[in-house]
Amino acid sequence: MKRKVTLLSLLLLFAGIVTKAQNTPVDYVNVLMGTMSTYELSSGNTYPAIARPWGMNFWTPQTGANGDGWQYTYTANKIRGFKQTHQPSPWMNDYGQFSIMPVTGTPDANQEKRASWFSHKAEVATPYYYSVYLADHDTKVEFSPTERSAIFKIHYPDYKDNYLVVDAMDHLSAIDADPATGMITGYSTKNSGGVPDNFKNYFVIKTETPFELVQAEEGSLIIGFPRGSEVTLQVSGSFISPEQALINLRELDNKSLDTVADEGRAIWNELLGRIQIKGKDIDDVRTFYSTLYRSLLFPRRFYEIDEAGKAVHYSPYNGKVLPGYMYTDTGFWDTFRSLFPLLNLLYPEESAKMQEGLANAYLESGFLPEWASPGHRDIMVGNNSASVVAEAYLMDIASKDAETLWQAVLKGANHVHPTVKATGRLGHQYYNRLGYVPNDVGINESAARTLEYAYDDWCIYQFGKKLGRPESEIAIYKERAKNYRHLFSKEYNLMRGKKSDGTWQSPFNPLKWGDVFTEGNSWHYTWSVFHDPEGLIQLMGGRETFVNMMDSIFNVPPLFDDSYYGSVIHEIREMQIMDMGNYAHGNQPIQHAIYLYNYAGTPWKAQYRIREVMNRLYAPTPDGYCGDEDNGQTSAWYVFSAMGFYPVCPGSLEYVIGSPLFDEVTVRLPNGNTLRLIANDNDAQSPFINSITVNGTPWSRNYFTYRQLMEGGEIVYQMAEAPNLERGTHPDDAPYSMSNEE
């Protein structure tokens, strides 16, 4: 009997321990989500970024060859090193990278010979800590990062000789080791563009374990440790100087690996925990926090803290060391849509620093960036820095640089960078004179540029109006915001390229990717009238036609014309295989389009499709995305949509209602208020909204306002299996459109 009581007591004690050890938001994050990707087919094109939120230096296990943008792929079976990385995507590749790799037996810096087999079964990957067993070296590696540094612990075997390879990946790089001080110092010049001539990532590696220098070659170095060593390495990097790298190393002062990991875990939990969710499907919870994690990585902090405790940065635009903030590694063509609106809504303290960084970028280069990595990069279209700047100011973020940023958006709207044609506005002379960028003047993707410039002009007008600029100065941008109308073909009810003489591009194939559009076709880009869906509805002849055209996106087979590219690019393939017609959620141009049903009085169609996309196209798995994740944009779409609303038109300060995924979402707002979003009778079979109340008052509109959300309180959705064909159908229920102001 006594034995039974003891066993029962142990079981109860164990149950109590399990009850107390509840998961926190970071425990649901899968940093490997999206890593099962290839050049031909993207399931995210991500890598496990072991980092602090917006950290300057990330770390990742490296399975790909040096210089390969696919630096970690889930299907790989060997690790070549552990890499300090600044890569925003495989397409942009990396800069300032170097790696360290423990080896045993015969020392060899060759990346093929030093590589070791590993298994995901012997891998622990979280945002704040990573460990793996290197089978060929019988060595375990653990590390945890701070913003600019990282601490490693390497557990070597006692029956083989132990070495460490440091690889700066470039013959122009340099590395030195001083066994007397336990220091390895060097710099990496390895990059993929967007840097001044004096660019270097200075790094330092410090250990208290005695070592000897074994081999030094151009760009690589090998040191040896005693057999059976447990080596702790403190590693840091700086874009400013070797001395600043040592200052950055102080982030690790007197801290163990466990301490650094615990601090990282706490920081991630604080930021992820601003949104608390309750739902029936654990995989939905995992997907939510995995996408929120991805939303808090870019743009990265490209500034450092000097000896006096001040923010300073190496300018990727002019090569000087200057005071103030700087951020990089984001492309506004992607991220203006939902990533920056998410940061502005929930993390405005970081957004404010990003706006100061944008002002500095303008002062140092003469232009706002459109794609920065780390400096201006010549890729993608649009002038969407105007959206990023305008929305932040309209939300009262970062007003101290407002005049500088105003001058910056005016400069960008009327000029193009002398050497980086994606910065500013390529074709602005034609656009300002004709109202569109023609397709016969040697400027590719002309229709996409026109549509995005028109929205950007609306943003500039809203920015100027809030600043109190005279109407005589800003009226031109309000007028140009209507320029999307020049490319609307009534014959097809689609957007179409136009020649400089005013005639249509011919022949016209709405399924042709590229050409006058960017990574999409006319079916995808026609809806890029973020600021005036009502105007588009009117051009199409009314709501019924508009809805039929929207329906056709999903009803048209996944046919395509790839002749512009000469082969099937991965974005095309990702559309083709998803069994959603011509809807291409894996790329940005159409990600907002489902929400446009709300403007045409059929919100239930948006609700159905949004829930379908969340359920089918996202999962907390290595193949968990349906295309490129793209620096937080595709993730932020999910974060917003799972909460039940989405910023179709950044700058309007409205969030268009979709279909909430979770039973309850609690948002800790940055002003101290709390917002509760409750979805009653919510399940996989009930994607439709029957009714909404806002703080107890019935709400028929198809949107929420920024002010509503920031006031906090309680929004209650009543979900249903069948659509409510009456709710949200009145014209007054539609979200903002510029045409409704006229």
Q: Structural class per helix/strand content?
A: alpha+beta
Number of helices: 20
Record the strand order, biggest sheet: 6-7-8-9-16-13-12-11
Strand-residue fraction? 15-25%
Major β-sheet profile: 8 strands, antiparallel
Task: Compute the separation of the termini in Å.
Answer: 85 Å
Strand element count: 34
Mean pLDDT: 96
| Poorly predicted spans | 1-20
**Helix percentage:** 25-40%
What is the general shape?
globular
Return Rg in Å.
Answer: 27 Å
Itemize the secondary structure elements and their pairings.
Blueprint: H1 2-20, E1 58-62, E2 78-79, E3 81-85, E4 98-104, H2 111-114, E5 116-117, E6 123-125, E7 130-134, E8 139-145, E9 149-155, E10 162-167, E11 174-178, E12 183-188, E13 201-206, E14 212-217, E15 220-225, E16 230-238, H3 242-249, H4 257-272, E17 275-278, H5 282-295, E18 300-301, E19 304-305, E20 311-314, E21 321-323, E22 327-328, E23 330-331, H6 332-335, H7 339-346, H8 348-365, E24 371-372, H9 385-394, H10 402-414, H11 428-434, H12 446-467, H13 471-480, E25 488-489, E26 494-495, H14 522-525, H15 533-540, H16 543-555, H17 570-576, H18 603-617, H19 633-643, E27 645-646, E28 654-657, E29 664-668, E30 674-680, E31 688-694, E32 697-698, E33 703-705, H20 706-710, E34 713-720
Parallel strand pairs: 30-34
Antiparallel strand pairs: 1-3, 2-5, 3-4, 4-10, 6-7, 7-8, 8-9, 9-16, 10-15, 11-12, 12-13, 13-16, 14-15, 17-29, 18-22, 19-20, 20-21, 23-24, 25-26, 27-28, 28-33, 29-30, 31-32, 31-34
